[in-house]
Amino acid sequence: MFSTYNNKLSAVLLCGVILSGCSSPAHKVTQQSASVVLRLDHNLDTSLCQWKGEVTGSEGHWYNFLFLLNSTMARGAMNDIKNNAAELGANTVFLLSPVDFQTSVTLLGSAYDCQK
């Protein structure tokens, strides 16, 4: 009887762990990318910035999009683009129009290192 209870408890805990993974984005912000700023406005004065390159960020796949909220996929894509910008040495990303797919969110942007 005790063994059956442990098996059921283990199954419930395993399901909880699996489902909690479905509700959070796969891409997490790193310590290095936490200070990267995402900009959508056209008031960014790039004369005070050095262009570092084009960056993308994406979250969601055909096999897991049913388990993720749109906001979770958007947050994951933002985290991913911040991480990619930080790898280039950028502190600001000017976001271009997002690319909407039914199974994922993808962001495109230009990465800059701007004076603050």
UniProtKB/TrEMBL annotation:
InterPro entries: DUF4156
Keyword entries, A-Z: Signal
Alphabetized Pfam families for the sequence: DUF4156
N-terminal signal peptide: 1-28
Protein name per Swiss-Prot or TrEMBL: DUF4156 domain-containing protein
